Amino acid sequence: MRSIALRLAPVLVAAGLSGLAVLPAPALAGGGCAGASSRPTPARAAEFSGTTLCLLNRERSRHGLGHLHSNAALALAAWRHSRDMAEHNYFAHGDFVGRLQRAGYFRGRRSWSVGENIAWGSGSNATPRAIVSMWMHSPGHRANILNGGFHEIGVGLVAGAPAPNVRGAATYTTDFGG
User: Fold this and answer.
1) How does 57-68 read in b/e, with b if 16+ C-beta sit within 10 Å?
2) From 39, 67, 103, 156, which residue has the greatest number of CB atoms within 10 Å?
3) Whole-prediction pTM value?
4) pLDDT tens, 42-96?
5) Rounded to an integer, what distance in angstroms lies between the CA atom of residue 57 and that of residue 54?
């Protein structure tokens, strides 16, 4: 049986069905997750993907859940999507399942469950800490992060915004699988 856990994407600088919104980014402990409060740059985006995973796993641990493990196909799909949104100035999930299929995630699987969170922010709202905090304060995003059926993740992070003329921004996609 196939199930899909798609969630709309309110973000720090958000676009969704309800239009633009600015959401709070309360403090989130990032101890041990190097770079949690740093803004991603093109040269360090991959490093901050790992920081984002570290923060997500800390949240799961706090709620008695096992860690998510990086999956290369999910990571490829997530990175491609973040890059595409930033390069083409849009912010949407689009053909989420198709992207995972093209990246090879479903190959050899008889059943699966997947979910996706997307976000972007600029300035201090572009840090992994700010993005994970926003997700944890958004019911749909939080549900994906704390879904015990998800065991794999791909984090795609690129420096840049899915909007023109925004400096110091980063775009995040997390693709979950189980």
Assistant:
1) bbbbeeeebeeb
2) 156
3) 0.84
4) 999 889 999 999 999 999 999 999 999 999 999 999 999 999 999 999 999 999 9
5) 5
